[in-house]
Amino acid sequence: MRTLPGGRGYLAVLGAFGAATAVAVLVQAELLASFLVEPTVSAAVVAGLAIAARAGIGWAREVVAARTAARVTHSLRTRVLDGVPGDAGSTVTLLTRGLDALRPYLTGYLPAVAVAAVVPLAVLVRLAFVDLTSALVVALTLPLVPVFAALVGRHTAARTQWAALARLGGHFLDVLRGLPTLRLFQRVRAQSETVRAMARAHTDLTMRTLRVAFLSALVLELVATLSVALVAVPVGLRLLSGGVAAHTAVLILVLTPEAYLPLRAAGARFHASTDGLAALNAALAVPRPPTRGTARPPDPRVADIAFEGVTVSYPDRGAVLRSVDLRIEPGERIAVAGPSGAGKSTLLAVLLGLVTPSAGRVAVGGVDLRELDPAAWRAHLAWVPQRPWLFAGSVRANVALGGPDVDTALAAADLAGLDGPVGELSTGQAQRVALARALARPAGLVLLDEPTAHLDGTGERVLLTAWRALDQTSLVVAHRPVFLREASRVLIVRDGVVV
Fold first, then answer.
1. Which of 73, 277, 286 minimizes the C-alpha distance to 159?
2. 7-284 — its CATH code?
């Protein structure tokens, strides 16, 4: 909890609520005992007010716990999304079912533990002043509840469903991604059996966990009930023989269950929190991204861009770019060509700040790109990826996301008058909508990654005309000879080397 936002404060507030609950329990027990021995209207009103005050403390604790849980889960989701990406399936499961399971831990288990740490001790001290024999019985039987809870907790520590759920989610996502390949090689049925087997394993683990939870609840209830009986029966016999006053006997009978109730509640809520704790550990284990720069970026319309010994390596592919030295002058129109997998898209990704060089640096106007504020730098860029994403809505609404100059951009992309839903567009038209969105953006650097991949002859001519009209610095990854001829410079990328 110390690593979470507001964690220390939340624990302090829970401690205060625990102390307030202990005071409310003692006051309520005294007033109820007085009312039951000598029932009067005033005693009933006062006892009712005490019960209402205790209920109000519980309500306030739940409100604080719910708000804290919402804040913590939001912070953890932001941390996971901002962190270094890992396995996509496990990450999605963590962001949804995983962190949702943290709420029972924050709103149920921790408040119950805070109450269980204070109330039994307060009740035991009060019983010692009222009747030492009853206090000794409670002191001897009270540790049985946490002992049994600890034993059950050790048994269920290895039965958390989170790991199985994360594996199932990750494998299912991999199957969906590879479905075309599986259909091609007729392996869909085999993978269906694998997913079905993993789902059955998760179901069996869930049922085993629930069985242990129900059995442990039965054990805790039985221990607490027998412990209360060990106090209640002797007190009743002493009351009949006149060995104890009626007010004292009733007070003991009211207070004794209160000593065991918080421990039983904490033990019952333990099982609902185990998955949340596993998800919390997974969220905290997500590597934090490198520190982002805060410097204000130069305008690429007037600043040059220099690659100085840039090398980009991936753990599974090795070096994708190797010692790239390149200078881009303001206003240049550059075409980037080369075979597939040579590193062309990675070159654009480095300029976008999506990939950090393993060695070397990219300088914009002499300032290292890593020192620039990423959001401010990307505000100067317009980018059309190989597979652009269009949002649900009209063509105009999608183009308007790029910038205010919608009509000019639509005309440049030869989409004037086309304002229907994007779901009715052809692949080539969708590519031109993405181009119009980039043209509508007031950018100083335009990056186009294979923009002609889905265009017909008409679309290619539209793109070429729009590219000629650009006065910004631009890089286009293309293979068509017409683009190579129109470029002010052509860069060839082979095996990560730019020539």
1. 277
2. 1.20.1560.10
